[in-house]
Design a protein that fits this description.
Elements lengths: L1 H26 L2 H13 L1 H37 L5 H25 L6 H5 L2 H17 L5 H25 L3
Length: 173
């Protein structure tokens, strides 16, 4: 069981890294893309070393984000909401982080239409991810009480805030 969780963790980290790279590349202006192509044509080895370093730094940032969110959700789940089964908390974390990656992908695919507050609140990936978390907890905990519903609302609010911060705060100035 531990091996499955480790493999799933690595897959989610790589998926989030891919989502961030794709989102950053699609957010670049055309003149920056032209400058990157010019650098690759003039000095390829130095450019590839530079981009490898950037990818490595992005991977480290994603691993930090993954661990921070994993620990934060585990801490809140156990201490505040009394969800004590580690397997349930781990699966909720995986769904939460995969939802974050899919919301970045959807923002990349929708482009300009996704820069509104209503989009952050009703992002299709966020809504679907929270529905998956709700169904999973409902099945595993044999129903939901008010404590679990508040927990799900908190996760939804975190997803909305993280999406707004990542998509508006970091890349769009």
């Amino acid at each position: 069981m531990r091996l499955k969780h480790n493999i799933l963790s690595v897959c989610i980290i790589l998926f989030l890294t891919f989502c961030f790279v794709w989102y950053i590349l699609n957010s670049l202006p055309t003149e920056e893309i032209y400058n990157i192509q010019k650098l690759l044509n003039s000095d390829g080895i130095r450019a590839y070393a530079f981009f490898s370093l950037l990818l490595l730094l992005l991977l480290v940032a994603v691993i930090f984000l993954y661990n921070f969110l994993f620990i934060l959700i585990r801490l809140v789940s156990k201490s505040v909401f009394n969800i004590n089964n580690d397997n349930n908390i781990a699966i909720v974390n995986y769904i939460f982080l995969a939802t974050l990656g899919f919301s970045l992908l959807i923002n990349t695919l929708l482009g300009i239409w996704s820069n509104t507050l209503m989009y952050f609140i009703f992002n299709p990936a966020t809504v679907f991810g929270v529905l998956c978390i709700t169904v999973y907890l409902w099945r595993k905990l044999n129903g939901l009480n008010i404590n679990h519903i508040i927990y799900i609302i908190l996760l939804y609010a975190w997803l909305v805030l993280i999406n707004a911060f990542l998509q508006e705060g970091f890349f769009n100035g």
